[in-house]
Design brief:
The protein has helices at about 5-30, 105-115, 155-160, 180, 195, 230-255; strands at about 30-40, 45-55, 60-65, 70, 75, 80-85, 115-120, 145-150, 165-170, 200-205, 205-210. It is of the alpha+beta class. The strands form 2 sheets. Strands 1, 2, 3, 6, 7, 8, 9, 10 and 11 form a 9-stranded antiparallel sheet that branches. A two-stranded antiparallel sheet has the order 4-5.
Length: about 260
């Protein structure tokens, strides 16, 4: 009897199981969700919630914002909004107001939440160059936003590490100290400071497969319990036990 061939069978079976599991594991590694609660900055009254569902190199961003500045020059107040990256991954507090004008402007907040990684525009480009494309951002006192967009590597990495921050800009001048309300924007001198002032901020907290329903995605296939690493070990152990039983049976038969 060739015991080498017999014992090789479970090893081959385990190899097949590992190969079958690898694509699924890689697929899951490219899917996760991040969430943030947007808290008021600069006494704006703006609050909200953000969900970012990542699928490979794409992300679907869903936002609900309320309490924002309502009108600007007889139209809806435009609210530039971005995913900021590559800094402390936090929102600035009053201590960030280094010039003492009573508000934390975008430049003062930069060391905390970082540079623009993705501009959450409603159409067109979503890169940093669209950071002040006010005509392509949502507007008004309350709005819902949803868009699927491409992620660059730097933004994806900040989302994974938990250092990505969503910032909504635009504060009603009436809620600002008079000295600050009279200033022009630190980002674009053609705009009033109120237009680009951070109004709400929240750090995105990532969770692997966070948006997936309990029990995994419905793929139309029956899912067996224990199909992860532990499940593979159990399956492998079962195959080895079957092989060992077969070996003992053959030896007994040979002795008879």
């Amino acid at each position: 009897m060739n015991t080498t061939k017999l014992l090789a069978a479970p090893a081959l079976a385990l190899g097949a199981l590992s190969l079958a599991a690898a694509p699924a594991a890689a697929h899951e590694a490219d899917m996760w969700s991040s969430q943030a609660t947007l808290n008021t900055l600069n006494d704006s009254g703006t609050t909200g919630e953000v969900m970012v569902d990542v699928h490979g190199t794409e992300a679907t961003v869903t936002m609900n914002v309320s309490g924002a500045a309502e009108t600007f020059m007889d139209g809806p107040f435009p609210h530039a909004q971005h995913i900021h990256i590559a800094a402390q991954g936090t929102c600035p507090g009053p201590v960030a107001d280094t010039d003492g004008d009573g508000v934390v402007n975008t430049t003062e907040g930069h060391p905390f939440y970082g540079m623009i990684g993705t501009s959450l525009t409603i159409e067109g480009d979503t890169g940093p160059d669209s950071g002040l494309a006010v005509e392509r951002f949502p507007g008004g006192s309350a709005y819902s936003y949803e868009r699927t967009l491409e992620l660059d590597a730097a933004t994806a990495e900040s989302l994974r590490s938990g250092s990505a921050v969503v910032v909504v800009h635009g504060v009603d001048p009436a809620r600002m100290p008079a000295a600050a309300a009279e200033k022009m924007s630190d980002l674009d001198p053609s705009l009033p400071a109120a237009a680009t002032l951070p109004a709400a901020c929240g750090t995105l907290t990532a969770s692997q497969m966070g948006a997936m329903p309990e029990g995994g995605a419905d793929t139309g296939a029956v899912q067996q319990a224990g199909t992860g690493a532990a499940g593979l070990a159990v399956a492998g152990g079962g195959l080895l036990a079957v092989a060992a039983s077969a070996l003992v049976a053959r030896r007994r038969a040979a002795r008879a």
